[in-house]
Amino acid sequence: MADKIVWQDRKRIIFGLPWSFTKYKLYEDKFQICTGFLSKKEEEIRLYRIMDTTLQKKLGQRIFGLGTITVNSADKTTPEFLIQNVKRPDFVRDLLSDKVEEARMKHRVSGREYMMAHDDDDDDDDHY
Predict the structure, then answer these.
(1) Structural domain boundaries of the chain?
(2) What is the predicted pLDDT for the residue at 127?
(3) Which of 57, 114, 59 is nearest to 85 (CA)?
(4) Secondary structure of 42-94 in the HEC alphabet?
(5) Is 25 strand, coil or helix?
(6) pLDDT tens digit string along 73-92?
(7) In what order do the strands lie in the sheet with 50-56?
(8) Quick one: what percent of the chain has pLDDT higher than 70?
(9) Which residues of the chain have pLDDT under 50?
């Protein structure tokens, strides 16, 4: 069975129009970023790995009802990514946060587990 897309949009550029080759898709358990036209790349981040989000709306973005969400995750290949120039950014951030919490509960993961893993990710032999 195919995953259900909860939200999707594409990065917008000139005058808030979606004339770019970057697409964002939010599923129940993952977030996907698809980029490229001739050469394509798909990045996938499991929602339970997302640590926090920051919403930024610059003046030019606000004029066109856009915003950029910076997402920090515990994913090794994608520790930080941007959801750039999307419509209704407040709604998107809230929806993403809700889905992250649902995924954490489903997988029985807490943010504290990631914090502890990062605190001791220095590969030195800690001897007490």
Answers:
(1) 5-108
(2) 47
(3) 57
(4) EEEEEHHHEEEEEEECCHHHHHCCEEEEEEEECCCCCCEEEEEEEECHHHHHH
(5) strand
(6) 999 999 999 999 999 999 99
(7) 50-56, 66-73, 80-87
(8) 84
(9) 120-124, 126-128
* Three-state DSSP state, 34: strand
Fold of 5-108: PH-domain like (2.30.29)
| Encoded tokens for 127 | 């001897």
Q: Which residue has the tokens 């930024």?
A: 56
Contact 87, 12 (CB under 8 A): yes
Distances in whole angstroms, Cα of residue 74 to Cα of each of 10, 11, 21, 100: 24, 23, 26, 13
CA–CA separation, 100 and 108 (whole Å): 12
